[in-house]
## 1
Amino acid sequence: MSYLSFEEIVTGVRNLATEYGAFCDLVTLPNTSVEARDVLALALGDTRGPEVRTVVYVGGVHAREWIPPDALLYFAADLLEARRAGTGLSWGDARISAEELGRIFGTLQLVILPCANPDGRIYSQEVDPDWRKNRARNVRPDGGVCHGVDINRNFDVAWDFRRTFAPDAVSASDDPCNKYLYVGPEAASEPETANIVWLLDHFTGTGWYLDIHSAVPAIYHNWGLDELQSDAPGMNFLNPAHDGQRGIAGDTLYREFIEPADATEMARLSRLMAEEIRKVRGDEYEVSASFSLYATSGASDDYAYSRHRADTGKAKVLGFTMECGHAFQPEFAEAEEVMREVSAALARFAADVSSVAPV
Ligand SMILES: [Zn+2]
């Protein structure tokens, strides 16, 4: 066994959609990648459709993080096989009963996008293992070309970091040749970003968004913009009065507003996942708001949660980023252990929210 190529991921997704057509649909995202590759997802559930209560799981945003796409494909395959057989699933001492699995499929839709950044995946596996971004062609003013936009700095939430953040406070770059953190020419400029936006637009029943990365290990929840506060609703990413103040750790000049009930629920679900991961082989994942890693602009988890605050006509989506494992590309035997941790956590998450989701 070894890491899947992008071609193998595509084949795997298509085969699952064919084999388990009673329990899942193939979702072809509207935008092909920069290099014109199809981007495919699966929608799992006994009942599927835009308005069904949905959890969105995304992997492969960062190309060099090889585990998440494989983990999500095997997660989908395990769930579908168990649903058809009417059994439960286990990973070490972490378990989902047959009854819980039935409830997940009966009350929820799980939209799983294993590899959001196909071009990056291929470039990382074939050319530069350290490649993180997509493969956009950035033409500099002097005519030179550099490649790649960091998809996870390209979303439309405080994207314009030079205006919105304090100087040097955020992990982002507007240099088209920055190897890791280039934010792109405008918010949501990249087709890979637009596809994730489309998932949230199309699946209007989405209540939870989980972006699977590596490797800290940790489970983060909103916000990544700044530390949290629940006293001053006006102190938020939409308020230009606070431009230039965001992203500084340890100050009280600016902190990002979060509704107390949301903060409590996000922390509860994050801890639930960390507890489930511990049952697999005893690994300890840190749980905190994303900002504890470093300040981020334009990240997908914050974008998912920001949509409702920017437009109350849009559903509220709680955002999470899992940073699985301890290395980007460990030996595959270790990668398989990490995949078991990811599956256990994501299954427990779904089982938990399925008990509160309206049928
Ligand atoms: Zn990442």
## 2
Amino acid sequence: MIDFAGQDFDVEEIFGSAGAISKGYPAYEDRPQQKQMASAVYNALHNHRHLAVEAGTGVGKSFAYLIPALEIAKQHECRILISTYTITLQEQLINKDLPFLSRLLDNNFTAVLAKGRNNFVCRRRLEFATRRGQGLFDSDMATLIRLGNWAKQTEDGSLSDIGFSPSPQIWQSVMSEHGNCKGRNCPHFNKCFYWRNRRRLESAQIIVANHALLFSDLVLRQQNVSILPEYRYVIIDEAHNIEHVAEDHFGLNISDGRVSFILNGLYNQKTKKGLLARAEYAEAVELVKSCQNAQADFFKAVGRWFEADRGNGSTRPGFVSDCISEHIKKLRLGLAKLAGGIEDADEKFELLRFAEMLGGLEADIKSFLSHDDKDCVHWVESEKNKRKTITLQSAPLNPAANIKKCLFEEFESVILTSATLCTGEGKGGQEFNYFAERNGLDDFDKLKLGSPFDYQKQVVMYIEPDLPEPNAAAFAEAAAEKIRKYIKQTSGSAFVLFTSYQMLQQFAEMLGDWFSENSIELLVQGAGADRAELLRRFKEDTGSVLFGTDSFWQGVDVPGAALSNVIITKLPFAVPTHPLIAGRIEHIKTKGQNPFFSYQLPAAIIKFKQGFGRLIRSKTDTGIVVVLDSRIASKGYGREFISAIEKCRVEMAD
Ligand code: SF4
């Protein structure tokens, strides 16, 4: 046991070859990078500094921030929030790393995994839904009865404990919600799952959460509301993702589905079910119907505009006329009036909840149509599915100012870490410039630590300099030939990473027969099985090959022989014509900067590093990385991709 109370933080005593960790974990290896990181994290927390640490694979990042965090939480008697992007990492921290440290350190701490409020069932709403029963839902009552039985037995009361999948409509009617909770006045308060979890969070020194929950909390804190109890410091792992998570929290998303979900919850004309499906609510039902008609007109108009638009879907203020928000307002006011005259407190709560959702929808539609947030890009997306789902979306040109305001200006010290924060070798910390600029970090300490693995021995990168460029017509055939060659070289065991689903499908069609003829299992993202299932099968069948797009470039951990070959088909530049990217490019130009070098290239380098990083997950892993995009050799900027990754053998293929 080790106790640092009143002493300076001595990394050797914990991380050294004869330190505390090595005593508790015989396979432990002393890594200078881990010690450097732990010292830097401790100093930053202690001295109230923000810190960005890029730590290569194998540094042992999690212990390097957990141990200083536990020490600071103890010294300052405060709570620290640790946020990660993936559930895999949250589970590793809460089920493995923190219990290990609790046994090792003389530090009687509690760590709790925070879940969003909507993950918990609300006993009061479940009781109400069961009471109202058949008239409320399109779905059958069996699920509701099953939920009721589950709620009697579950300890946790959250979605992850259910073991079956209630429809979104049913779950949204029984989940715990801010603004639809009676708190201490609720008869279920003492046994309430959400509040029980909240009390556990309040007694914890370490809260583990995901980035989405962190940002929901940060945004609400700006309005003096919070989801999580107070915390003094924030540690963000997988920090390369915070820009994208923040984007979602500072933009708008108005889909046909979102509107239908609210209106059908009130009254579904087809099934004649919903909260208002009662004779005494006939007047309000008429208001719902006129809203539904207005919804159809509005989205038809948006669809017509989208089809006629010769651009990329970017909108101008008033690009269609607002034929819907007045109807939503009337319905909202109608529901509020109705709620005012109702005795049943639960029914009143439900009506007010719908009124609140309609208020949010009305405000979002008005804001979108007027483009009242000038720092956002506004655009329309239409999915080419059967229903041609239409979505009105907006996102900040640069979320840096928003992140700075709600995160860096609010907390004394924020630690940000990932294996991919830097965009090149740089000098004097300049390699952090892109990350800092996109995320609103002004005054911060920085540390870049390479991997302790021997990449020179473990990896060979092959570049195909003579292939046509990816946009050339001849690329697909030539690249398919190379994929066959390199898959044969490693007898499968490969990830083939694409930059779009369309490209992935094209190659899956071209190569499907070849894989069958060679008895190699080909796993294709988007062809039925979900991501977790694909990964499970890939790990099980060590000779299989996985074709993946976006989500397989990062956060996937396949150590050992199952993965010995990563083929990068195209340098991962974002599509420049996408409205958000195009808007950002224009915005950067107006500032007199070069958007390619200040935005598109660094963003692609970060993603390239993520893809490259899939190969080596332990010091015994070996394999090849193949780059089929010849621009890495022919263009001047190609060098920047190579200099940004761990130093390894790079060979130009003949
Ligand atoms: S306290 Fe709130 S969340 Fe809990 S059961 Fe009651 S109303 Fe639902």
